[in-house]
Amino acid sequence: MTVDIHELQKHVGRSVELRFNDGYVARVKLIDADPDSAPNELIYDVLEVLNWGGLDPGKVDLQSAHAASVEDLASWRVVP
Fold it and tell me: Considering the chain, what is the average pLDDT of its residues?
């Protein structure tokens, strides 16, 4: 599945659930979705981790903003 960054861009400032190809799942506040970057990049603050997937929780700073390529996303959805 290819994620359309233009659709994500419409939800900047909202809470969304991001599901990554490696199994990592988090509810985040979407700060930016940049279709002009290569690769298309997302900037977000993590609100809650639902599944760590392949990440080591001890090596993730949840207090800072995170960046990811839209190519790493399996899916996303808006959450209340």
Answer: 92
